[in-house]
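Lab notebook, design round three. We kept the backbone fixed and only want residue identities now. Task for the bench partner: fill in a sequence for the structure below.
Input structure tokens:
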């Protein structure tokens, strides 16, 4: 369990981590921990063997009065991770801004995420129609660049998106 939490922690600290990717990483960790809760991981199995043998690294194990119930502990960790997950509405509104989730088909890309962009703009108190138009312009520029046209993405990205983390709208 500690290994899985360490991996999650390191991934969440990556410089290029965004809220959508963080949500995916947390959910993946929850899934792994849930599976480990049911059948135990490799380390848990080794610990159970050591307990049965009564020895750990040559030292005799003595049973204490305050036992931690493994299943209850595992569930508590899982529940705490779930509490820290971003709101699903926010994550869904942000997905269309992340090129990783864009459809490959050009026609599908043009209309992709319009509803979510409108909802996000309204949440932020911005003009929904301007936000959708800006997102469409980014998609258009990216499809032009992918088609082989020379497009300098930073210069041509509409002002609405200039303040967004670098790389979120990259066309590379």
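Proposed sequence:
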């Amino acid at each position: 369990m500690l290994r899985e939490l360490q991996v999650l922690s390191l991934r969440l600290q990556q410089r290029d981590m965004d809220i959508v990717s963080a949500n995916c990483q947390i959910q993946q960790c929850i899934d792994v921990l849930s599976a480990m809760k049911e059948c135990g991981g490799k380390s848990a199995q080794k610990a159970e063997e050591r307990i049965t043998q009564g020895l750990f690294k040559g030292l005799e194990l003595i049973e204490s009065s305050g036992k931690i119930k493994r299943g209850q502990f595992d569930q508590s960790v899982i529940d705490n991770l779930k509490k820290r997950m971003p709101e699903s509405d926010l994550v869904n509104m942000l997905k269309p801004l992340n090129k990783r989730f864009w459809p490959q088909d050009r026609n599908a890309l043009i209309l992709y995420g319009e509803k979510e962009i409108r909802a996000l703009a309204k949440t932020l108190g911005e003009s929904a129609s301007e936000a959708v138009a800006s997102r469409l312009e980014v998609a258009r520029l990216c499809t032009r660049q992918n088609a082989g046209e020379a497009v300098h993405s930073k210069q041509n990205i509409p002002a609405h998106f200039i303040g967004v983390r670098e790389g979120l709208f990259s066309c590379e």
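Keep this in mind before ordering anything: The chain has a mean pLDDT of 76.
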